[in-house]
Amino acid sequence: MKKTYRIACIPGDGIGKEVVPAGQAVLEALAAVSSFQFAFENFGWGGDWFRAHGEMMPKDGLDALRNKDAILFGSAGDPDIPDHITLWGLRLKICQGFDQYANVRPTRILPGIDAPLKRCTPQQLDWVIVRENSEGEYSGVGGRAHQGHPIEVATDVSMMTRAGVERIMRYAFKLAQSRPRKLLTVVTKSNAQRHAMVMWDEIALQVSQEFPDVTWDKELVDACTARMVNRPATLDTLVATNLHADILSDLAAALAGSLGIAPTGNIDPERRYPSMFEPIHGSAFDIMGKGLANPVGTFWSCVMLLEHLGENAAAQQLMQAIEQITADVSLHTRDLGGTATTTQVTQAVCERIATTA
Ligand code: ATP
Ligand code: MG
């Protein structure tokens, strides 16, 4: 009897509906040659659900996910629904409901990808950005008063707690320690944000004492963007606040060649709840339904999902299949300058998995 992993699939909106089934297909192809299998359950939440029910997911939706081993997510975003509703009503609801406080975003230049950083070899650009995913600038604290009047005020409070900063800092140091270079850059803005970011710096120093074998430095977020372009090889693991890491990881994805290939995991390191894996791109309605969506970001997210389940051999096998197809320019989708379709790339990855087993 094969071990069964229960996976919730939430395609969401736009090209999420194309890339999540593609991800399921490659996971099925892996299961066919492995000692485990998947029991997928699909949830049709998102913009269509909102139009029918007035909410992005059911009130008891989290309960339906609670007993899953992991969640594969597509994208939430719809041109007819305000962004703060699609985001807070689905993705952030899951991230916060399951306290997925570490958002982990690897970046590498895959073989065959024409990345903008020509001075840098793929071996030199190998980053993981750890994004604080539960508080900070996106804590939702704030409000508006005197709406529409000249004296209107609006605030978004960047709320940071000692416990919240300590746990993400410890996660980042541990991750840096597990990587060959044992190198961590703590991204900050404590020169201008003189309360929460100063505490962030203090906690970095404090947690660093627990990891004497990790080499670490501090970098201001603005300087960090320049360093990513000018001296990419000096970076390895980075940890940053919710907003800062959000921006840095889009830059990272673009530097690695395309938004369409970048993966992420929203992780509950304590494993009290399921963790959620997704491509970093959004719903991309401009290319929806045309077979143009690059599924590689979702496939790479599946690699992270498999690692999280402890299926490291299968994860490696999938990563190798991904690298083989990116190395083949005839299998590039349009965002990478090619003409291959979502289905062709998915089939090619499934075939590689079947033949290398
Ligand atoms: P959202 O509002 O949900 O963030 P968006 O319309 O802003 O969605 P993004 O996903 O953020 O779209 O991406 C911006 C652009 O990058 C898209 O309009 C699309 O052209 C391109 N893009 C994003 N993801 C992919 C992908 N997987 N494959 C190909 N092109 C992509
Ligand atoms: Mg977007």
Structural write-up:
Helix content is 40%, strand content 20%. With 357 residues, it is of the alpha/beta class. Strands 2-1-3-12-11-4-5-10-8-9 form a ten-stranded mixed beta sheet, with helices on both faces. A two-stranded antiparallel ribbon has the order 6-7. Helix 1 packs across helix 9 (296-308), helix 7 runs parallel beside helix 8 (242-255) and helix 9 (296-308) packs antiparallel against helix 10. It is globular. The model has no long low-confidence stretch (mean pLDDT 95). Adenosine-5'-triphosphate (ATP) binds at residues 15, 75, 77, 259-260, 281-287, 292-294, 297, 333, 335.
Which key phrases capture this entry?
single chain; alpha/beta; ten-stranded mixed beta sheet; 357 residues
Quick structural gist:
With 357 residues, the chain is α/β, with parallel strands linked by helices. The chain has helices at 16-32, 47-53, 61-65, 83-97, 162-178, 196-208, 221-230, 242-255, 296-308, 312-327, 342-356, and strands at residues 3-12, 36-42, 70-75, 102-108, 126-132, 142-145, 153-156, 183-188, 215-220, 237-240, 263-267, 275-279. Its EC number is 1.1.1.83.
Strand content: 15-25%
Q: Please provide the ordered H/E string of secondary-structure elements.
A: EHEHHEHEEEEHEHEHEHEEHHH
**Mean pLDDT level:** 95
Distance between the termini: 19 Å
Work out the helix count.
11
User: How many DSSP-defined strands?
Assistant: 12
SS content category: alpha/beta
The hetero compounds bound to this protein are: adenosine-5'-triphosphate, magnesium ion
Organism: Polaromonas aquatica
Keywords: Manganese, Metal-binding, NAD, Oxidoreductase
Cofactor: Mn(2+); Mg(2+)
InterPro entries: ICDH/IPMDH, IsoCit/isopropylmalate_DH_CS, IsoPropMal-DH-like_dom, TTC_DH
